Predict the 3D structure of the following.
Amino acid sequence: MPEDLKTGFEWLTKIKEGMEAAKNDNQELIKRFEDIRAVHHTFTQFELSRVKMQEGEASPRAVELEDKLSRNLEVVHRLGVEGEVAAIRPPRTADKDALIHGRIVDEKSRGQSGMRVALTDRDGKRIDVGDSEVDASGYFSFVLDPEKIEAITKNNKEIFMTVSNKNGEVLYRRPSPFKPVAGGAIKENVVVSSRVVPVVEKKPEPVVRPTKPIVVRKRPVKKDK
């Protein structure tokens, strides 16, 4: 290998190591801020309880502390979300691989660990690439090599995605298909709740039976004698 090319590879490795270390440092820093905010929140709650007992719930100081607690909860929540995002480590991919990845979160953008993500066809049948289990950050990923891409896209086969809970109940179905491309990445963030997506089954058409004609019989009229 030429010396300049070898040097280039060494610098690239150092840059990647530096970026990885920066991610770890950022994650650790966010975690420390989150811990500090949590402790601060606890002390503020104690102070609020004391003020309410001495000055009353409607006192200006109590109202101020209530507002402070509310704002602090928002900060703690944002730090938690940022910490989850900082913890994500996307898988390594080759030049011709396709990556499908993203996060499964709740309505407050917190990761929904334990969920399972599957790639399916239009009829809901699983495609043979394995399921991806959602981690603590809500992250999932599929790495498709060229052979898998060719097998999936052969005959213009469409790819959809479903998210299921631990009981196998489907919580989300992607309404439109994916189209993986060699060397490309598709990012999909999904908000799910505990509500199970109802499966719409086609009901059989009602059987219409022919009705028999109604025959009206006339009673004989009795003649007076």
Notes: The mean pLDDT is 78. Strands lie at 98-105, 116-120, 132-133, 139-144, 160-164, 170-173, 185-187, 190-191.
